[in-house]
Amino acid sequence: MKTDIEIAQEAKLLHIRDVAEKVGLSEDDIEYYGKNKAKVSLSVMDRSGKEGKLILVTAITPTPAGEGKTTTTIGLADGLSRIGKRVVVALREPSLGPVFGIKGGAAGGGYAQVVPMEDINLHFTGDFHAIGAANNLLCAMLDNHIFQGNELGIDPESITFHRCVDMNDRQLRFLEDGLGGGKNGVPRKDGFDITVASEVMAVLCLSTSLSDLKTRLSRIIVGYTKEGKPVTAGDLKAAGAMCALLKDALKPNLVQTLEGTPAFVHGGPFANIAHGCNSVVATKTALKLGDYVVTEAGFGADLGAEKFLDIKCRFAGLKPSAVVVVATVRALKMHGGVPKTELSSENLQALEEGLPNLLRHVSNIKNVYGLPAVVAVNRFPTDTDEEIALVIERCKELGVNVCLSTVWAEGGKGGEELAREVVRLCKERSDFKFCYDETLPIKEKIEAIVTKIYGGSGVAYTPEAEAEIARLQSLGFGNTPVCMAKTQYSFSDDATKLGAPRGFTVTVRQVKISAGAGFVVALTGNILTMPGLPKVPAAEKIDVDENGVISGLF
Question: Per-residue pLDDT tens for 38-59?
Answer without folding.
Answer: 999 999 999 988 899 999 999 9
